[in-house]
Amino acid sequence: MTDRMSAADYNARMKASGTSGGRVARGRVKPQEGMNKLEQEYAAHLQARLLAGEVQWYSYEALKLRLADNTFLTVDFFVMLANDELEAHETKGFMEDDAAVKLKVAASKFPFRFYLVRKRAKKDGGGFTVEGVGNGC
């Protein structure tokens, strides 16, 4: 029988060796713990659009979309525009392959527009780049 290493032992060994064995998962911030910095900045942008009358409503992580068995996407922001259209806005500082696939699948499966939101560098004028995902955009 082979002895198994506990998760705590594995983490201690990786820390001591100075390696993570590759990329380290960042994990997911629970909604009650708050948004990450990019999400906070985009929420402020949406709030400004709300006050300007361009947006009627928005909500952070309001819906969890089922894409397949045991596969879900929790969109960062659902946004209702002034014309009553509902959009899904996903903010990303860096896009992993699985996240890109999930976003494309969601865009093909659900009847609203999906957008990928990235922060634009200050040297490029700041603000956000909003890119449509799927056929609906």
| Biggest sheet features | 5 strands, mixed
Approximate strand percentage? 25-35%
Low-pLDDT residue spans: none
Principal-axes geometry comes out as globular
Q: Give the H and E element order.
A: HHEEEEEHEE
Count up the helices.
3
Radius of gyration: 19 Å
Query: Portion of residues in helices?
Result: 25-40%
Give the strand order of the largest sheet, numbering strands 1, 2, ... along the chain. Answer: 1-4-5-6-7
The SS-based structural class is alpha+beta
N-to-C span: 56 Å
Give the beta-strand count. 7
Give the oligomeric state of the chains in this entry, treating copies of one chain as homo and distinct chains as hetero: single chain
Mean pLDDT: 85
